[in-house]
DNA sequence: CAATTTTTGATGTACGTAAATCAAAAATGT
DNA sequence: ACATTTTTGATTTACGTACATCAAAAATTG
């Protein structure tokens, strides 16, 4: 049988109350006695039954998740994962409030952060917009003892406790290697399609991609970056113009969202098979395009992992515990049509 | 506040005992009363506090994990994950026994299974050897009400409850697509290096790989399969002979273990950069070879995921609960040198 | 050595559920 | 209407920990 506090008390020759004082760092224990108890804990291999402890404490964790609104498939998937976490809140003793804000709007985000602040949560997770006033708002939360985790998009210099997202420079590098090798058999240039260079993730991905192309595939000509504002209609127009302008196009790296327009342009102009296309985020659209062969590879960050990691980290920070950073690192998944995961409800 | 059994009893106008009878499917409740209670549960949104329930039940899950011995890096990593799960056993109410057996020996595995049987565990996880007598032993366990999950290597027709491993046909297909596209720029043949065709995983991977090569890259010549018995020394010899025999070799797909010999042969003969090499399982060796460029891509199954999934499934089966198969599906990870996860301790 | 402070013990209640017992009430069959 | 069976209620104990209270013992101080 697993040892309990009673066993520890008996082994150490002290009362239950003393063991409790040691375990919960309460005052009023001589260091000699403390040592005796700790030795007993060590020899018995006692570990606190967390379930029973939480039950007794009635501990719960009120968290606020701030996510961008809009029809971005990835963000909607992320919201779905947060809602799934809310459904689990009973067993995880969390109490999650979802706070939607317009995308890419620093001012509104600052307001949302102070609104979250007023509800006095134990922690806040936020998809950050990279602006100094947002960083200030995050600082205020932290100064008030509220844990803050950035989600998907980071905010360096804000003093946030943790970033739950992928290394986007590495993601760009991975795309570069795939692009270079997939187009190895042919000539032609490569285009990069971004959402906006004002967003940190996109800048990082471009940096990684360009670096690998320059280092390892210097013969390949890189066209100037096209910014599609993650807008399917605009993207489609831009891509149509691109393929007309560049009959010799070997590949397109789409590092932002709004891939519907990209796919539409490629399929309507009959270029879906000839141009090597690499995109980000596995959504119903990108999945279909991958399966049909219009997209050749998708780099993905698992939104479910990110949300669950954010919650684990927020809990740990709220309890003042350490986080094993390596364990919370989010992987970059590569999907080809052959290793697509089964579609979930 | 979250509703409790007391609230449900009050709402339904019945006693605590009746609510308990409904919740735990105990007999002696009229269906009208049962309905009343269930309506109360629904309207209040009551969810059982699993922590409290487990505490009250004092439930624990004795499991046996049967793994092959030997210096196979992947298997040692798997063992490490099982030990990590043993360390968590306190909080997860599991009680895991590790049973090592010589690799690829059906007879010994049967003995190990009956030894496990005698300890009367709630469940058994086993890296299966594909043999009828093993299937028989698994059947005996299941007939005795013990849940059985196959790990990494499946055993169809044994009636096992679940397989915690990857779809190896899909893995082979993925390797095929990568090989075809990575070698797109050049002529030359492709070789396949297996451990043994007696093992199910290897057969499946070959099947998937060959299918994609035939369907999508019919011009590429596939050499006859080389069997290296997962033995580094033998593999090195065979690969050396191969590269001498086939000066025009474009790629090698190594679908088994023992990649140290492969890497050594390629590096010593100076072919490490010219031949496209795709291998399985991310180990310290394959990681180093990936980083140095000797291996171009590694397909991986996450041993940690597999072990945790196996435990979740064993628990569910032991409690007679349903498993959401889609949620327990193990993904095939693709690693390039650019998206390697940080090295863990 | 007495007075004071600090440390320890003993005990009880709480958390939300499980499980058992015994008595009471209601439904069923004849 | 009676006996019998089934259903329900009331109550208690337990799981392992947290936390509070009050008394007792030990250590420290003057």
Estimate what percentage of residues of chain A fall within beta strands: 15-25%
Model regions low in confidence, pLDDT < 50 over at least 5 residues of chain A: none
The termini of chain A sit apart by 41 Å
CATH architecture of the largest domain in chain A: 3-Layer(aba) Sandwich
List the helices and strands and how they pair.
2 copies of one chain form a homodimer.
Chain A: H1 5-12, H2 16-23, H3 31-44, H4 50-57, E1 61-68, H5 73-87, H6 89-92, E2 94-101, H7 106-118, E3 123-126, H8 132-143, E4 147-151, E5 162-164, H9 168-182, E6 189-194, H10 200-216, E7 226-227, H11 232-245, E8 249-254, H12 259-268, E9 276-280, H13 284-292, E10 297-300, H14 303-318, E11 333-335
Parallel strand pairs in A: 1-2, 1-3, 3-4, 4-5, 6-7, 6-8, 8-9, 9-10
Antiparallel strand pairs in A: 10-11
Chain B binds a DNA duplex (30 and 30 nucleotides) through α2 and α4.
What's the quick description here?
2 copies of one chain form a homodimer. Chain A contains 14 helices and 11 strands.
Question: Overview of this structure, please?
Answer:
The structure is a homodimer of 345-residue chains. Chain A is built from 14 helices and eleven strands. Chain A has 345 residues and is α/β, with parallel strands linked by helices. Chain A has three domains: 52 residues, lambda repressor-like DNA-binding domains (434 Repressor (Amino-terminal Domain)), CATH 1.10.260; 134 residues, Response regulator (Rossmann fold); 133 residues, Rossmann fold. The structure holds a DNA duplex (30 and 30 nucleotides).
